[in-house]
């Protein structure tokens, strides 16, 4: 029998010593009321919360779990490096080996700089673009997420208008809108951030149009501005190379994180020789950026990315999940918008403007052992099996049936009411 007594007690203790009880994207403040906040164990594709409840995890720690929690070969690499040293007065040789591995795998990359978070990588990209020709204007797609530093946080409390004074916004996948933003920037156009695909929360996911991507590249070249692809969320889930390389477009800079160390804290900025001088002119650092253990984990993760069929497997599993879930929804009388790449699914209900069905569905599934999100894209990892998907579908059948039987009484979530258009 599912219960959350231990987690509730931990949340109460946390509220006394942590603002709001938790911070950032892993806060469950926007999730259904009974969602557990704390977990004690993870293995493969499963999580166990503080009450011992077991979940099939479709969030993968919001992305870092690519190969499976505690993947044995990655864990062995971690332990080997731990015996040698981790955070030392200087980096280990593994830093050079990792940079060599990445520049050997990512078509556009000639160099690498390592850090800890995706937000650090995107902020490095921003200042590198500005340093390239001494310009200020950075172009961003409306609603796109590129981290939580003052220039890009989605919740700007405590920030200043000056933090965003030189940002110009355009519509994703709209080359005319982008060209208008470039005109607005004029001679001060430094660079543009591009997402691998539109993966905003609370909305359908949209893949990039090849003509749009090529147009962005061409316009950047015409203005000697840097094109930045933010791969932090999607990196290595769509391709073994950079995602836009699949549509024939190479950026000047790319930002990576999440899966890079299969859960170890490491991110990086990659760049081409055009951007090398600018990257070498900025000062960026962090005492833990040079830690050897996450680099060893990343080096082994990259080997498995190169040498195994992980990508084909997550595509196969993701396709199975999408096709079967949409079919199942129809059988229970619901329409689903299951959008984005099959390896990073976004599941939203048709005719659900206040997300009441999505929240009830996720809450019921969670109580029966499947961790799904009602508003964020999810992730498939290489530890998932067809048997896991069959089990997940048994759980989602319960959730669909619950909504069907209680359709008239399902209430919208008060947690997101303030976020919805009035």
UniProtKB/TrEMBL annotation:
Keywords assigned: Aminotransferase, Pyridoxal phosphate, Transferase
Pfam families listed in its UniProt record: Aminotran_3 (PF00202)
SUPFAM superfamilies with a match to the protein in the record: PLP-dependent transferases
Superkingdom of source: Bacteria
InterPro entries (alphabetical): Aminotrans_3, Aminotrans_3_PPA_site, PyrdxlP-dep_Trfase, PyrdxlP-dep_Trfase_major, PyrdxlP-dep_Trfase_small
Cofactor field: pyridoxal 5'-phosphate
Protein family per UniProt: Belongs to the class-III pyridoxal-phosphate-dependent aminotransferase family.
Descriptive protein name: Aminotransferase class III-fold pyridoxal phosphate-dependent enzyme
Organism: Seohaeicola nanhaiensis
């Amino acid at each position: 029998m599912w219960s959350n007594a231990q987690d509730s007690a931990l949340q109460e203790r946390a509220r006394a010593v942590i603002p709001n009880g938790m911070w950032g994207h892993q806060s469950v403040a926007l999730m259904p009321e009974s969602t557990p906040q704390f977990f004690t164990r993870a293995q493969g594709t499963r999580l166990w919360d503080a009450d011992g409840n077991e979940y099939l995890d479709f969030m993968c720690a919001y992305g870092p779990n690519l190969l499976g929690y505690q993947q044995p070969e990655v864990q062995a690499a971690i332990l080997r490096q731990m015996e040698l040293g981790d955070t030392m007065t200087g980096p280990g040789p593994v830093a050079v080996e990792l940079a060599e591995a990445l520049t050997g795998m990512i078509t556009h990359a000639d160099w690498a700089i390592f850090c800890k978070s995706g937000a650090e990588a995107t902020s490095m990209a921003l200042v590198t673009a500005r340093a390239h020709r001494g310009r200020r204007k950075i172009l961003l797609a409306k609603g796109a997420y590129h981290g939580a530093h003052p220039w890009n946080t989605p919740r700007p409390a405590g920030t200043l208008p000056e933090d965003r004074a030189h940002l110009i916004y355009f519509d994703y996948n709209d080359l005319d809108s982008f060209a208008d933003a470039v005109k607005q920037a004029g001679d001060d156009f430094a660079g543009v951030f591009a997402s691998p695909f539109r993966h905003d929360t609370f909305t359908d996911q949209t893949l990039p149009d090849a003509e749009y991507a090529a147009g962005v590249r061409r316009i950047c070249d015409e203005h000697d501005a840097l094109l930045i692809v933010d791969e932090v969320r999607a990196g290595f889930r769509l391709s073994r190379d950079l995602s836009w390389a699949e549509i024939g477009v190479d950026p000047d800079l790319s930002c990576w994180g999440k899966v890079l160390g299969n859960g170890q804290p490491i991110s990086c900025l990659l760049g081409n020789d055009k951007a090398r001088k600018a990257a070498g002119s900025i000062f960026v650092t962090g005492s833990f950026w040079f830690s050897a253990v996450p680099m060893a984990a990343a080096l082994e993760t990259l080997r498995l990315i190169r040498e195994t069929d992980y990508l084909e497997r997550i595509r196969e599993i993701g396709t199975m999940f999408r096709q079967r879930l949409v079919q199942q929804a129809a059988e229970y009388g619901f329409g689903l918008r299951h959008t984005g790449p099959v390896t990073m699914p976004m599941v939203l209900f048709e005719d659900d403007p206040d997300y009441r069905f999505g929240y009830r569905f996720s809450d019921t599934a969670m109580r029966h052992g499947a961790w799904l999100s009602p508003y964020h894209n999810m992730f498939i990892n290489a530890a998932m099996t067809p048997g896991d998907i069959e089990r997940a579908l048994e759980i989602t059948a319960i959730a669909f049936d619950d909504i069907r039987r209680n359709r008239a009484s399902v209430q919208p979530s008060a947690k997101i009411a303030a976020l919805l258009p009035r």
